[in-house]
Amino acid sequence: MALRNIVKDGDPILRKVCRPVEKFDEKLWTLLDDMAETMHAADGVGIAGPQVGIMRRVCLVDCYDEDGVIELINPKIVATAGEQTGNEGCLSFPGKWGTVTRPLAVTVRAQDRNGEWFEISGRELKARAFCHEIDHLNGVCFVDLAKDISIEKGEEEE
Ligand code: CO
User: Fold this and answer.
1) Taking 70 as the threshold, does the pLDDT of residue 155 lie above it?
2) Number of Cα atoms under 13 Å in the Cβ half of residue 112
3) Which of 6, 8, 73, 97 makes a 20 to 30 Å CA pair with 53?
């Protein structure tokens, strides 16, 4: 496994729509392992392909609970319920925070690293992370949706 560089605000890569993953091979597995390591090293709860310069529909979520690292390949949100409004940040926008309204509960259909389809549901932080990461695959960043953006000086993490 290896750390990958995190693409930061201002890079046009963050604004592009990703293509589907078609090959479920060792190259993908290495990418997934590297993305997990990069996310954990930055204390993130999610990371998406474009954030490591990969324009494919792949993202990870880890809310540090019993689900562990959730690998989402070619994910789609298939159901949502309710609403939550809260603070959100992003590894590509260090020190920036904003208030974003998201669904309270989200169900995602995605493929795993072997290409098998599955569904997973999450509430609260996990629902927020699913929405945030899948947005990245469509070139959407949280700052596009946020109100009250604040910038912390010299403090990148919560
Ligand atoms: Co992000």
Assistant:
1) no
2) 8
3) 97
Q: pLDDT digits over 42-70, tens only?
A: 999 999 999 999 999 999 999 999 999 99
Task: Give phi and psi for 97, each to the nearest 5.
Answer: -135, 150
In the reported structure, the alpha carbon of residue 136 is separated from the centroid of ligand 1 by a whole-number distance in angstroms of 7
Its CATH architecture, for the domain 12-151, is Alpha-Beta Complex (3.90)
Residue 11 has pLDDT above 60, yes or no: yes
Rounded distance from Cα 29 to ligand 1 centre (Å): 21
Give the chain's radius of gyration (CA, Å): 15
Q: What is the pTM assigned to this prediction? A: 0.95
What is the domain partition of the chain in residue ranges? 12-151
pLDDT band at 152 (very low <50, low <70, confident <90, very high): confident
pLDDT value for 154 = 60
Structure tokens that stand for 127 in this block: 């629902």
In the reported structure, the alpha carbon of residue 118 is separated from the centroid of ligand 1 by a whole-number distance in angstroms of 23
Between the CA of 58 and the centroid of ligand 1 the distance, in Å, is 13
Output the CA–CA distances (angstroms, integers) from residue 36 to 45, 92, 113, 139, 155, in the order listed.
10, 15, 13, 21, 22
What are the residues facing 87 on neighbouring strands?
Answer: 99
Catalytic residue ranges: 133
